[in-house]
Amino acid sequence: MKRRVTKAIFPVAGLGTRFLPATKSIPKEIMTLVDRPLIQYAIDEARAAGIKEFIFVTSRGKGALEDYFDHAPELEASLRKKGKDDLLNILKSTNMESGAIAYIRQHRALGLGHAVWCARRLIANEPFAVILPDDVIAAEKPCLQQMVEAYQETGGCMVAAMEVPPQAASAYGVLDIKEDMGSMVSIKGMVEKPEPGTAPSNLAVIGRYILTPKVLQNLNRIRGGAGGEIQLTDAIAEEIRNERDVFGFRFRGERFDCGSKAGFLQATVAFGLARDELREEFSQYLREMVILPDAAQ
Ligand code: UTP
């Protein structure tokens, strides 16, 4: 029997430089898609996958993130008094049970691998998930839930994977495939940000992982990888070298890179159009935006 995955790490200690000046005072993860901050999408996905303990790796200036999960008694009382039950319910979905959420500090932004390593004492000896909140995934069944279900069959380590055009591969960790079994691939290697033209496949890793505690031990030993940062990819690749199973999982869904401006704007359009109360007005506006300038030419 495979162990259940009940802990998730949310590394949110990055500098978010691509969104300066906004990220000078707002954590990237608090930026909103329609009316919900990125972190709320990540938390909802984790809950759907059965996660019970939420570990945030934070840094200076991320106070708004911690506040976001607190109860807001005055606001709740005022909504209750006005009979605004629908808004109250929305508010309640942001509350976390006492003790379910932990914050660990990453004192310097030394990379994603280092951020995950900072949470090692809270993980101890269990498999765990890692969710990068700036990868937002629209899916009928939430991505991490798909992965946890697949993990019951495979064990080992698992990374979410998606096909990318060859020219985009050097922006990702890329899988070297041993065997392609459809939604699952077994992996014989992983390369972080390969030089253009050298990527071993077009299957790229995106921000969802299920990892064994061995990866934390590997991180203990790793110093600087690509770009001088401590890379999570390197610690996972070491598992392959140690002849332990690592799988790529082709999830069903659409991933938006909300860490980039173009990706964030695309997600805003997609999530806006997905909302019943906005669809008609918003799609009309988009049609006019696209058709009128074309017609004017
Ligand atoms: P990114 O590569 O997107 O970096 O990190 P970033 O700092 O957030 O943003 P830019 O590139 O400067 O605009 C991917 C994920 O890893 C976390 C980030 O918070 C993000 O969720 N991370 C990265 C850390 O927690 N610590 C780090 O040292 C680096």
Structure description:
The structure is a single chain. This protein is of the alpha/beta class and 297 residues long. The protein has one domain: Spore Coat Polysaccharide Biosynthesis Protein SpsA, Chain A (Alpha-Beta Complex). It is 37% helix and 24% strand. It contains eleven helices and 13 strands. Strands 8-11-9-10-12 form a five-stranded mixed barrel. A two-stranded antiparallel ribbon has the order 2-3. A hairpin with a 2-residue loop joins strand 2 (32-33) and strand 3 (36-37). The longest helix has 21 residues, at 276-296. 37% of the residues are buried. The mean pLDDT is 91. Bound molecules: uridine 5'-triphosphate. Uridine 5'-triphosphate (UTP) binds at residues 11-18, 28, 57, 106, 109-112, 114-115, 132, 134, 259.
Helix content: 25-40%
User: Which residues sit in consecutive blocks of at least 5 with pLDDT less than 50?
Assistant: none
What general outline do the C-alpha atoms trace? globular
CATH class: Alpha Beta
Rounded average pLDDT: 91
Domain module tally: 1
Quaternary state of this entry equals single chain
